Amino acid sequence: MPCQGARPANSADDVVELLPVVLGKGAFGRVYEGTYHGQRVAVKQLLDLVEGAELEELQASFAQELEVLGRCRHPNILRILAACMTPPRPCLVMEVSQASAEVWEIIAA
Ligand SMILES: Nc1ncnc2c1ncn2[C@@H]1O[C@H](COP(=O)(O)OP(=O)(O)OP(=O)(O)O)[C@@H](O)[C@H]1O
C-alpha cells in the first residue's frame, strides 16, 4: 500500500529484507531492523499468533496507524516508507528511530 510520498510497491526491487535484530516489542507484535532500497529501516510486523475477533481488532488498529502516520510529514515524526496490509505478514516499514530505550519507555508510559 503506497504511503504519501512513498513509491508504489510494485517494482521487482521493492523488497524489504529483515535482519535478525529485534528493535522492540509492542501491542501489535515485534519491530525488526531491516533494509529497504538500501536504507536501514524498522519493520513493524503484526502478531501472527492471534486470530478471530482479536486479529480483526489488531488489523483495524494497524490500518489506522498506517492511515494517520502515512499522512504525516514532520521532522519529529517517524515516516512510514511502505506497508503491506495483506496476510500472511502485514507490516509497516518506517524510518529507524534514533531515540534511546529510555525515551521509548517514557513514550510508552
Ligand atoms: N521506528 C522505530 N525505530 C526503532 N525502534 C522502534 C521503532 N518503532 C518501534 N520501535 C521499538 O519497538 C517498540 C515497540 O514499538 P511499537 O510501536 O510496536 O509498540 P508500542 O509503543 O507499544 O505501541 P503500539 O501500542 O502501537 O504497539 C518500541 O518501544 C521501540 O523500542
How does this model look, in words?
Residues 1-5 have low confidence and may be disordered. This protein has helices at 52-71, 101-108; strands spanning 16-25, 30-36, 39-45, 80-84, 91-95. It has 109 residues and is α+β, with helices and mostly antiparallel strands. The chain is built from two helices and five strands. The longest helix has 20 residues, at 52-71. The chain is 26% helix and 31% strand. The chain is globular. It has one domain: Phosphorylase Kinase, domain 1. It binds adenosine-5'-triphosphate. Adenosine-5'-triphosphate binds at residues 23-28, 31, 42, 44, 78, 94, 96-97, 104, 108.
Strand content: 25-35%
The number of strands is 5
Calculate Rg over CA atoms: 14 Å
Query: Structural class, please?
Result: alpha+beta
| SSE pattern | EEEHEEH
Average predicted confidence as pLDDT = 84
Shape by Cα distribution: globular
- CA(first)-CA(last) distance: 31 Å
Please name the fourth-level CATH homologous superfamily.
Phosphorylase Kinase, domain 1
Helix content: 25-40%
Main β-sheet, in a few words? Answer: 5 strands, antiparallel
CATH topology: Phosphorylase Kinase, domain 1
Question: What CATH architecture do you see?
Answer: 2-Layer Sandwich
**Which ions and ligands are bound to the chains?**
adenosine-5'-triphosphate
Layout: helices, strands, pairs:
Elements: E1 16-25, E2 30-36, E3 39-45, H1 52-71, E4 80-84, E5 91-95, H2 101-108
The site of adenosine-5'-triphosphate has 15 residues, from strand 1, strand 3 and helix 2.
Keywords:
alpha+beta; 31% strand; disordered N terminus; kinase; globular; Phosphorylase Kinase, domain 1; 2 helices; binds adenosine-5'-triphosphate; protein serine/threonine kinase activity; Prot_kinase_dom; five-stranded antiparallel beta sheet; 109 residues
